[in-house]
Amino acid sequence: MQNADGWRRRGYLPHIDATHRLQAITYRLADSVPKKVIERWLGELGTVTESDRQEQLHRLIAEYEDRGHGDCWLRDPENAAIVEENLKHFDGERYRLDAWCVMPNHVHVLIFCHEAERLDQIVRSWKNYTARLINRRVGREGRLWNHDYHDRLIRDEDHLLRARRYIRMNPVRAGLCKRPEDWRFGSAFGG
Predict the structure, then answer these.
(1) Residue 31: how many CA atoms within 13 Å on its side-chain side?
(2) 183 in any annotated domain
């Protein structure tokens, strides 16, 4: 449900559609962080404020994802290439990509949405298209992507620099490469 100021709530994460603003997005494979793990964390976080709770939960999820849980379908270079090509397909038309990285079980994107484009529809189109191709390629059926995604408006130049660095360094922090330029499925590749 969306209220008058553009905020929507679906699941445990609030979302906002903001055109002409940079947003950092993370979406993950359905089996990368089991629902029971998230529910346990939410119970353990207890009585902290809602914003602290969301921040801590996001940190826990990010750390868990980086340990490579689940089937990690995107570890396969052909599957990761499907996601990469899909991200680049509408770059300049529906949105502008600023930075991105395809990890083994999740994807980070820093995006500037063009006017009249809704973030939830863009993310849904990414997921639907890539799920269809990857499932067909690996001979599986069912949900590939988690139903929700994490998005965050970029507040200022410092926040933008931190978001870019986080995306760029994610494969290094996860132990997948020594330098961000070495990770084939990221905007830092070869740079």
Answers:
(1) 11
(2) no
| Backbone CA torsion sign across 177, 178, 180, 181 | negative
pLDDT band at 112 (very low <50, low <70, confident <90, very high): very high
Say if 178 falls within a structural domain. Answer: no
Q: What angle do CA 126, 14, 94 make, to 5 degrees?
A: 30
> % helix / strand / coil in the chain, to the nearest 5?
45, 20, 35
Place of tokens 């990221």: 186
Query: Model-level pTM?
Result: 0.86
- Residue carrying the six token digits 């799920």: 131
Burial category of 101 from C-beta neighbours within 10 Å (exposed 0-12, middle 13-18, buried 19 and up): buried
Overall number of domains in the chain? 1
